[in-house]
Design brief:
The protein is α+β, with helices and mostly antiparallel strands. It has 15 helices and 12 strands. The longest helix is centred in the first third of the chain and has 41 residues.
């Protein structure tokens, strides 16, 4: 039998322990650990969730890596065509970790209704387009049918539909600038077959999605000419590495740009969340540790006579210190139990009912996203236990200074 563990267990279950002066201090220490773990779990889950959700949304409209012509065009419209007769298309086998490549084109235009008008970017996509990235944002209707003959079906955002007072199955006129000799704008009439809402207002306020063949005709391109290629990688954390590899494998006349480079201001902003999470973790662990140190000191002072008796019976300092460390571990585990229960419960409620809303103009999402990762939670719990116990070794050193002769007579 582990003597230290046995004594610690008896101390924990003793009735006088529950009614002693240390009882409220112990409760405060347990509550501090519980609150700290709740804050840490929530901050990690919401921080990582927000980062992943924004990455997914940017990827849904741009892919992970964009291959296009070198040009000084700062707009979103495709100016110079790229031939689809490339070694890397339709399968990019030269670089591992690429799961899909698709050909797209964009053209700037203006939607004109009887009462309103809005500037838009028409994104033309083909049969190889990976709709599943946008399908989760579809709130009404269906996806355009692109595998049949050229048609007028498009997908429009709820934001644009509301501003233009359009609804499902409505038709509207769109005017496109003509880059050719004839400077008069060209008109196309489209029909809304689906409405999406990504919550990313920068894209929702701009994109309508339809058949790439419309842009090819408007620009007088051949069927094998597109605006750019969008590439999706398996592991987003390796996007910079894959971007460099892709650049080496494409012709020198083409450029490869990752979405991290294109939307640097968004991803630089996302990096701030990592710093915020680290600050919260450090503060919460410090607060929890300080409360545990106070609780341990009170427990030691309260059991001074017991320490003296154990020393007089031959127990060494480390053996007695282990008793109080076991006692502290019990308190830490109690705090972790309640903290994990409350923290994970709050995350599940948010994930299910989406109670906390966010301003999409500031955060690019409508609701606070959460990412419940068991590995992160386990690492957080193990790290908290280890840090607290390591720090508690310092105040437990007080036991070595207690004299048996004086403490046994202590009243």
């Amino acid at each position: 039998m582990n003597l230290e563990h046995f004594i610690a267990k008896r101390l924990i279950t003793a009735k006088d322990h529950k009614s002693s002066i240390s009882a409220p201090i112990i409760k405060i220490a347990i509550a501090a650990i519980a609150i700290g773990i709740v804050m840490m779990i929530v901050s990690i889950a919401t921080g990582i969730g927000l980062q992943q959700k924004i990455r997914q949304k940017v990827s849904a409209f741009n892919g992970h890596i964009i291959i296009s012509n070198f040009n000084g065009n700062e707009s979103d419209g495709s100016i110079e065509p790229v031939s689809t007769n490339q070694k890397f298309y339709p399968k990019f086998n030269a670089v591992e970790g690429i799961n899909h490549i698709q050909a797209v084109a964009t053209k700037l235009g203006i939607i004109r209704t009887e009462t309103d008008f809005e500037g838009i970017t028409f994104k033309g996509v083909g049969k190889d387009y990976k709709w599943e990235y946008l399908e989760e944002y579809l709130i009404e209707g269906r996806l355009p049918k692109l595998k049949s003959n050229l048609n007028e079906e498009v997908l429009i955002s709820q934001y644009l539909a509301n501003r233009l007072k359009l609804k499902l199955n409505d038709s509207f006129n769109t005017f496109f600038l003509n880059e050719g000799d004839d400077k008069l704008p060209k008109s196309r009439r489209f029909k809304i077959v689906g409405i999406y809402n990504s919550g990313f207002q920068e894209f929702d306020a701009t994109y309508i999605i339809g058949d790439i063949r419309h842009i090819q005709r408007l620009n007088k391109w051949n069927s094998n000419q597109v605006g750019s290629f969008e590439i999706f990688v398996d592991d987003f954390t390796k996007i910079d590495e894959k971007g460099k590899q892709v650049y080496k494998e494409i012709p020198s006349t083409l450029n490869a740009q990752t979405i991290v480079e294109k939307y640097y201001y968004i991803f630089d902003w996302l990096k701030l969340f990592d710093f915020n999470i680290i600050v919260i973790l450090i503060i919460m662990i410090i607060v929890s540790t300080i409360n545990m140190v106070v609780a341990l000191l009170v427990l030691i002072l309260e059991r001074t006579q017991m320490i003296g008796i154990l020393k007089s019976l031959g127990s060494d300092n480390w053996s007695i210190r282990k008793i109080f460390l076991y006692n502290s571990l019990y308190l830490i585990l109690r705090g972790l139990f309640w903290g994990n229960t409350i923290g994970i419960g709050l995350l599940l409620i948010q994930k299910k009912f989406e109670i906390i809303k966010l301003n999409p103009e500031s955060y690019y999402v409508n609701v606070a996203p959460v990412e419940i990762n068991i590995l992160y939670i386990l690492a957080l719990n193990v790290g908290t236990v280890l840090v607290c116990l390591l720090v508690l070794l310092i105040p437990s050193y007080l036991i070595t200074k207690i004299s048996p002769a004086k403490t046994i007579r202590f009243d």
